[in-house]
Structures are given as C-alpha cells and as structure tokens.
Amino acid sequence: QNNYRITSVKAYKETLVYLNCSGNSGITDAGLSGSASKLKILYANNNPKITTIRPYTSTLKVLHAEGSCGIGNDTLRYSNRIVELNANDNVKISSVSSFATSLQILHANGNCGIDDLSIVRACNIKILYAANNSRITTVAPFAKTIVTLDCSGSCGIDDSGIELACKLENLNVDSNCKITSVCACESTLRTLNASGLNCGIVD
C-alpha cells in the first residue's frame, strides 16, 4: 500500500493469496497479469492503475475497490465468487449481478454507483454499509439474512426500508431523520447507534 517502488508480484505468483496495492502503489494491471492466479483477497482502494480482475476471477472472494480505483462494471461481470465488495465512493461500480447470490458483505457508502436495482438479486447479504448513499432505500431483497446495517446520514433507507428486516442485530442510524422506529427488529437488536441531532429516533 502506497509503495510506488513495488511494481510486480511475479516472485510470489505460486503462493500469493492476499494483496494490498491501494493508493499510490506501483502495482498496475501489468504487474498482476500472469502473477496472481491464486489471489483471494485484493485491496486496490484509490489505485486507478488497477482496472481488471480477469486474471483471478476464479479465485477472488474479497475485493476492496473504493474511490478512484480503476475497477468498474466491465471487469466485475467476469466474477461469480465475490463474498465481500467494497465499492465506497466508486461511481464505476453499479452492478453486482454476476456474484449477487454469493455476496454477503457490501460496502456502498457515499457517492457509490450501487442503488436499489443493483442489489435486487443479492438475497444473501448479511452486512450492508450504505452511509450517505441516497440511492439505496430498502433491504427487502435480503431482509431475511441481514444482521448488520449502517444507514446513517443521508442514506435513502427509511422505516419502510427496514420493516421486513427481522434479524437485525446491529443498526447505525446516526443522523438519519428517515428512521423513526426499530419495531421490526426490536426482539433481535443488540446495538443501536441513534446519535446525531438529525436522527429520527426519539423517546
């Protein structure tokens, strides 16, 4: 991470399963081509030089591609095994359709391309971070599996968006004026962050 002097991982091509080449890393698509066929976890946050995951689509399970990362829909459509995706503030990622049923953890905070339509088939999500994402308004497609939800700030989720979430254990509604009740999950809820003057939850 942030080491521009490392540009290749060829020396570890037979063993590499985890790589963090975020930020000002010297690693590019060329540095990974033919050298990361066993990669399972990739952090490429804010690295615009990483634009594809095709060399390791058959093994990759965790992908962090937030911000100015070069990864977008064009390359994600080749993957069908991703379990965790971080697309925070990445407008180039707006679809998870190819791995919708395997996806369990989704980071879609801020100015992200993910919206309700993007996750309509993601029926197994357990953890969703959608802080300040006004385009996500409901957890209905995965209401039976979600246990942790961050819908703080200007997230589009309101009371009706969580009314079917009967297994929620952890809920962050910090500064979300649209959430006024937790009745749907009151029997399962363990932690609740209802801070902020704009939060809709009161006594």
Verbal overview:
It is built from two helices and nine strands, in the order βαββαββββββ. The chain has helices spanning 29-32, 73-76, and strands at residues 18-20, 41-43, 62-64, 84-86, 105-107, 127-129, 148-150, 170-172, 191-193. It has a nine-stranded parallel sheet with strand order 1-2-3-4-5-6-7-8-9, with no helix packed on it. Helix 2 (73-76) links the parallel strand 3 (62-64) and strand 4. The longest helix has 4 residues, at 29-32. The model has no long low-confidence stretch (mean pLDDT 95).
Could you give a quick summary of the protein structure above?
4% of the residues lie in helices and 13% in strands.
SSE layout:
Blueprint: E1 18-20, H1 29-32, E2 41-43, E3 62-64, H2 73-76, E4 84-86, E5 105-107, E6 127-129, E7 148-150, E8 170-172, E9 191-193
Parallel strand pairs: 1-2, 2-3, 3-4, 4-5, 5-6, 6-7, 7-8, 8-9
List keywords for this structure.
9 strands; mainly beta; 2 helices
The helix content is under 10%
Write down the overall mean pLDDT.
95
Query: For the terminal residues, how far apart are their CA atoms?
Result: 45 Å
Rg from alpha-carbon coordinates: 18 Å
